Amino acid sequence: AQSVTQLDSQVPVFEEAPVELRCNYSSSVSVYLFWYVQYPNQGLQLLLKYLSGSTLVKSINGFEAEFNKSQTSFHLRKPSVHISDTAEYFCAVSGASGTYKYIFGTGTRLKVLA
Amino acid sequence: GAVVSQHPSRVICKSGTSVKIECRSLDFQATTMFWYRQFPKQSLMLMATSNEGSKATYEQGVEKDKFLINHASLTLSTLTVTSAHPEDSSFYICSAPTSGGASEQFFGPGTRLTVL
User: Fold this and answer.
1) Which residues of chain A neighbour B44 with C-beta distances below 8 Å?
2) End-to-end CA distance of chain A
3) Judging by DSSP bridges, how do beta strands B57-58 and B111-115 pair with one another?
4) Chain B CB contacts of A32 below 8 Å
5) Distance CA A56, CA A67 (A)
6) Given an 8 Å threshold on Cβ–Cβ distance, is A100 in contact with B46?
7) Element spanning A1, H or E
8) What is the pLDDT tens value at each position of chain A, 114 positions in all?
9) Left, alpha or beta for A99 (phi > 0: left; psi -120 to 50: alpha)?
């Protein structure tokens, strides 16, 4: 079984400042890791994913996350945030055996301040 | 990319009535779909796995007689909330993985259920 921990429920940050949203997981098997973003009253949009290969994965809008197996982490970072990045961010893990079942973290609300 | 739709996007009903929510994969076939429930400002909790051609698999603590799931075809799964009560008010989201073994799911836009 897998579990995901997002320690920060809310992260306020000023516009153009860097941000890191933390995600730690536990699993007895190999995993796939995902970051999803959710805007108010909307579904989830995939931000980026780690399946295999390079441990640093990047999204088209400037976010990146690094898979660290020894620390069982998959932290999300952005060097300079925009007001439009204000949203809820969920980290998710699934076993790499192809069961597709996702376990979500509790989410981190990123609030970008002007 | 793959698209998953949900209908309705929002529904308000009286206590005691049943509500059906549809989840469709628009441009791919999905033998498996997932149903999640999200309370305000909380995470998504997996309710059940919907399997085309067989019974759904429910997570621990989810009442199967309360939340009926039918995977009628390779592109449609329905969730029926029977005898809805105010505590069933929530945001319901479905997802479906595409084939190919990449273990990536695509999520529907969600259905906001309000039971009066």
Assistant:
1) 44, 90, 102, 104
2) 41
3) unpaired
4) 103-104
5) 6
6) no
7) none
8) 788 999 999 999 999 999 999 999 998 888 899 999 998 878 888 999 998 899 999 998 899 999 999 999 999 999 999 999 999 999 999 887 766 788 899 999 999 999
9) alpha
Cβ–Cβ pairs < 8 A, chains A and B: 56
pLDDT of residue B99: 67
Q: In the block, which residue shows the tokens 């399997």?
A: B51
Please check whether residue B84 touches A, CB under 8 A: no
Please give, one letter per residue, the 3-state secondary structure of chain B: CCCEEEECCEEEECCCCCEEEEEEECCCCCCEEEEEEECCCCCEEEEEEEECCCCCEECCCCCCCCEEEEEEECCEEEEEECCCCHHHCEEEEEEEECCCCCCCEEECCCEEEEEC
B107 and A CB contact within 8 Å: yes
Name which of B44, B97, B109 is nearest A100 (Cβ-Cβ).
Answer: B97
Minimum-distance CB partner of A104 among B41, B43, B109: B43
Query: What pLDDT does B39 receive?
Result: 85
**Cβ contacts of A46 on chain B, cutoff 8 Å:** 104, 106
Q: Which residues pair with B20 in a beta bridge?
A: B80
